Hints:
By secondary structure, the protein is mainly alpha-helical. The protein has a domain at about 25-53. Helix content is about 95%, strand content about 0%. It is built from one helix and no strands. It has one helix at about 1-50. The longest helix is centred in the middle third of the chain and has 51 residues, at about 1-50. This is Flagellar biosynthesis protein FlhA. Keywords: Membrane, Transmembrane, Transmembrane helix.
Amino acid sequence: MWSVVGAILALVIAWWLVGIVFSLVRLAVKLLVVAAVAVVVYLLIKRAFSSKE
């Protein structure tokens, strides 16, 4: 009986941990993409203003 409860508890904890890990990975990837796009936009704005002077 306790082995069944332990297995179910292990599955619930593993499911929860995997969800947290995937959320953190998705957040990290999103932050990297936002940073890359911000750098590109910054360079485009800098080039646009420097060419007019």
